[in-house]
Amino acid sequence: MSLQTSKTLVEAGKQLIKRPEVKNEVGEFVKHRLPPLPSLKDLLHLYKVKAKKHLSQNFLLNKRICNKLVAYSGISNGSTVVEIGPGPGNITRCILEKNPRELFVIEKDRRFLPMLEMLADAASPGQMKIIIGDVMDYSLENLFPQELKVDWHSLSPPIHFIGNLPFNVSTALIIRWLRQMHNKTGPFSYGRVNLTLTFQLEVAERIVAPVMHLQRSRLSVMCQNLAKVRLCDKIKGASFVPSPDVDVGVVKFRPRREPIINDVPFDIVEKFVRTMFHLRRAYLVKGLRNLYPRELNHLTDAMFEEADIDPTHRSVMLDIEEIGRLVKVYWKFCQQHPGLENYDFRAKMKTPKFVTKSLSD
């Protein structure tokens, strides 16, 4: 396709007169077909857009794979969808073909704005909304209509998050969402919103890794504690443009009605699990001693004894229920020794004053 033809199709898409109705006479959403549009390769060439390495951009241009990704998410007629990092919009096209009620796309790179605006013009009126900015800067708490809110223990709301995430933000973003999931804030103030996301395959395997698996890690425990996770698919790196040196995994998150480790603040669980996997090949007792300053080190043995866990086990050997028993004892000790939860063995400082005070008491 020539550039002149591409430009003509772009203008045709923008000038297309669309029917204003999005529902039929019985209130059902009608199928909306997108007009003929230029290929993503032509648009990238037309707007002279190349992937930026420092933003970890890898475009998924294979429509068959994009359709599979959308199918895994469960997006259907009338869903409300948030797409993270749409880039040139190939997954966006597949979402629009499912005729969602609303589609919000959050894109950090302004170079993609003309391509996304073309899709918004081609969609039903008001169906697609573009947010230019970093998803890490948005809480997304008031993004959707209040009528979409449901009770946490009921079925999931008709809200779906989907995204081909850049490798450099994927772990930080999922930890942020897990915290919001735990606190029922951000998008999770609407209920148990499902997430379908891509990760570097090694990270995806960590997320779903079971007990005794070589990839079992802090991320495994944090994700599985709060959500049911499933590795839906593996995508070859060659399917992306430019091709990364690694393959990609598609992971679906379904928030649990209750976390396995309950009644403990998220940051306490995260700190405990991070410390636990810091020395993953050593005995548990060696790593978890780092939770306590020297003056309170006797609490390490007391923690294992009260939780009824063998201190010579290794971190990959414990399931989440067993980890939860240790975490709850640690949290109890934190409440008995104010300030203990802030102790950081990596900080180069003397014993905090709270330790001396608690011991003298």
From TrEMBL:
<keyword id="KW-0808">Transferase</keyword>
<protein>
    <recommendedName>
        <fullName>rRNA adenine N(6)-methyltransferase</fullName>
        <ecNumber>2.1.1.-</ecNumber>
    </recommendedName>
</protein>
<feature type="binding site">
    <location>
        <position position="134"/>
    </location>
    <ligand>
        <name>S-adenosyl-L-methionine</name>
    </ligand>
</feature>
<dbReference type="InterPro" id="IPR029063">
    <property type="entry name" value="SAM-dependent_MTases_sf"/>
</dbReference>
<dbReference type="InterPro" id="IPR011530">
    <property type="entry name" value="rRNA_adenine_dimethylase"/>
</dbReference>
<dbReference type="InterPro" id="IPR020598">
    <property type="entry name" value="rRNA_Ade_methylase_Trfase_N"/>
</dbReference>
<keyword id="KW-0698">rRNA processing</keyword>
<keyword id="KW-0496">Mitochondrion</keyword>
<feature type="binding site">
    <location>
        <position position="58"/>
    </location>
    <ligand>
        <name>S-adenosyl-L-methionine</name>
    </ligand>
</feature>
<keyword id="KW-0489">Methyltransferase</keyword>
<dbReference type="GO" id="GO:0003723">
    <property type="term" value="F:RNA binding"/>
</dbReference>
<feature type="binding site">
    <location>
        <position position="85"/>
    </location>
    <ligand>
        <name>S-adenosyl-L-methionine</name>
    </ligand>
</feature>
<dbReference type="GO" id="GO:0006391">
    <property type="term" value="P:transcription initiation at mitochondrial promoter"/>
</dbReference>
<feature type="binding site">
    <location>
        <position position="164"/>
    </location>
    <ligand>
        <name>S-adenosyl-L-methionine</name>
    </ligand>
</feature>
<keyword id="KW-0809">Transit peptide</keyword>
<dbReference type="GO" id="GO:0034246">
    <property type="term" value="F:mitochondrial transcription factor activity"/>
</dbReference>
<keyword id="KW-0949">S-adenosyl-L-methionine</keyword>
<dbReference type="InterPro" id="IPR001737">
    <property type="entry name" value="KsgA/Erm"/>
</dbReference>
<dbReference type="Pfam" id="PF00398">
    <property type="entry name" value="RrnaAD"/>
</dbReference>
<dbReference type="InterPro" id="IPR020596">
    <property type="entry name" value="rRNA_Ade_Mease_Trfase_CS"/>
</dbReference>
<feature type="binding site">
    <location>
        <position position="60"/>
    </location>
    <ligand>
        <name>S-adenosyl-L-methionine</name>
    </ligand>
</feature>
<feature type="domain" description="Ribosomal RNA adenine methylase transferase N-terminal">
    <location>
        <begin position="65"/>
        <end position="257"/>
    </location>
</feature>
<dbReference type="GO" id="GO:0000179">
    <property type="term" value="F:rRNA (adenine-N6,N6-)-dimethyltransferase activity"/>
</dbReference>
<dbReference type="GO" id="GO:0005759">
    <property type="term" value="C:mitochondrial matrix"/>
</dbReference>
<keyword id="KW-0804">Transcription</keyword>
<keyword id="KW-0805">Transcription regulation</keyword>
<feature type="binding site">
    <location>
        <position position="107"/>
    </location>
    <ligand>
        <name>S-adenosyl-L-methionine</name>
    </ligand>
</feature>
<keyword id="KW-0694">RNA-binding</keyword>
<dbReference type="InterPro" id="IPR023165">
    <property type="entry name" value="rRNA_Ade_diMease-like_C"/>
</dbReference>
<comment type="similarity">
    <text>Belongs to the class I-like SAM-binding methyltransferase superfamily. rRNA adenine N(6)-methyltransferase family.</text>
</comment>
